[in-house]
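Reminder: ligand-aware prediction takes two inputs, not one.
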Amino acid sequence: MVNTFFPTHWNTDLILDQLDIHGFCVIDKMYDMKYFTALNTECLYSLNEFRAAGIQNGVVSHIRSDHILWLDDAQPLAKQHTNHLLALGKVFNQAFFMGINHVEAHFARYGQGEAYALHRDNPQQKNDRIISTVFYMHDVWQDDWGGELRLQDKHDLWHIIVPKPNRMVIFDSHLLHEVQMSKEQRLSITAWLRHDDQVW
Ligand code: OGA
Ligand code: MN
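Here is what comes back for the chain with manganese (II) ion:
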């Protein structure tokens, strides 16, 4: 049972409709500026702890060049965000019987020239990720700075989504997508709503 709530201005009916119809949804003005700025500061403060996302267990993959930091209780403001997402996951469970019971999240930083090639977040439905969310938290973004999220919707139509500050994209983790090359520092929280089997 999660006793946290998400901000009342989040339009859950719209989110549910868009997810159902297209398999993804874009929400702007997610948070008030006070929280947004504090979250941005929390992220910038820990930038020196970020590690190359393409290296896992010493194995190098060339699919992505960003740097990430997995979130835990050391980032209390980001934790509030993931708690909101868990509450939103409960709404998805009621509507779509998704069985979401866990959120997994990291900060991500794309520097100049960095990108993430075409991929799915849940290849072969193997890793229990059901819904992907990306929240953009750099303080400014210009349309010619690249870094767009290119996403194929559930009807195979492609969409180009500019990573505007304080915007969140929610999408089915099975959908194919990529991050186009960024020309400036691009900061985000990627969080996955997951269904994990209970371990007794
Ligand atoms: C990811 C991802 C998209 C984005 O982290 O898996 O696809 O827009 N992120 O940052
Ligand atoms: Mn992804």
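The chain has three helices and 13 strands. The first strand starts at residue 24 and ends at 27. We will return to this case in the review session.
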